[in-house]
Design brief:
The chain has two domains: about 210 residues, Glycogen Phosphorylase B (Rossmann fold, 3-Layer(aba) Sandwich); about 160 residues, Glycogen Phosphorylase B (Rossmann fold), CATH 3.40.50.2000. It is α/β, with parallel strands linked by helices and about 400 residues long. About 40% of the residues are buried. The chain contains 14 helices and 15 strands. The two termini are about 20 Å apart.
Length: about 400
Amino acid sequence: MRLLIYSHFFAPSVGGVETVAKSLATGLANLRTAGGVAAHEVTVVTNTPGPNTNEFGDPYRIIRRPPVDELRKLIEASDLIHVAGAAIPPIREALRVAKPVVVEHHGFQAICPTGQLLREPQDTPCPGHFMKGNHVACLRCRKTGTFYGSFRLWLLTFFRRSLCKRVDVNIVPTAWLGEELKLPRTKTVAHGLPPEPPIVRIGNEDRKTIVFIGRLVTTKGVRLLLEAARKLKERGRPFELLLIGSGPERGSLEERVRGWRLLPEVKFVGPAANEELPRYLAQAAVVVAPSLGGEVFGMVVAESMLRGVPVVASNLGSFVEVLGNRDQTFQTGDVEDLARQLARVLDSPTLADDWARGGRQRVLSQFSERKMVENHEEIYLEVLHSRAKYGDRG
């Protein structure tokens, strides 16, 4: 199969979409037929600048920032188009030339103009204004920018949703996301992680380190986490909070830490490479995912579970589905509930260890990289078989 994977964001950029798209491209390119030859010829198209594939020895071809004419030719030469992230140009072009196309949703762009399902500037979870027809609220939802910018995003949401209704399959990483999107021909394929040994956690009952991993942006809920940390300090509970990651809000968050006198408990680690994370996680009592919105799966949650580290997360539908245990969640946006959960896990090493063991086993059994690749291939073959049997989708 000549397979084209379009991912607007891709390596060397770092993020959840990039991680999943690269794993999928590599896994599909490495599949072999019974005769030992490559089952698929994989081409990745991306708007992310960077080196070509030969520098990394990747088993797929990569084309960066192709002009429109070249993108059109690449689509026409492919047997099936996989679009990671509901990007309009490749979907529109694939439909124009009647090519089989599947869309994997990594955000809420088909039901939310900002793609985050977060009300701004209130920074509170959105109840689904677009799908409920409350479009005035959508047009008012913006932290910065103009009304015309919001109006444009609002119009594009209608167009993007219309395109997604016409594709062969809409793939979602959680069943919860599928229920939110309400698109036809939806199939759930969970993101997959490669197996790795658990983190050897140092210390025992003295472990009081809370770890956050992610971008320092509003949707990730870092300010909420700092507010919960302030409550822990006011109540005399010993802890250390490591913020691993970078982002545009670091400066304002550092000012808040100083203003709330959270030094030396809170430390800004900055971005950490994958090989550096085990050193920080080895001392972690818990990893916290306090996101307010924008989460369709939760790679940090799943990766921490795989590493054998206990997790506390906001009760967003995607996090609940990945965790498989509501006991490890707190009410999204609720500072008191988050502080309560953190105190609970800090006070009970036995509970933390139970969560760690159960989480790792869940990821190994439910979210394997191999299963993700095989499930995608199965969908592609079903689409091609259906096209051959019933003709092009109108």
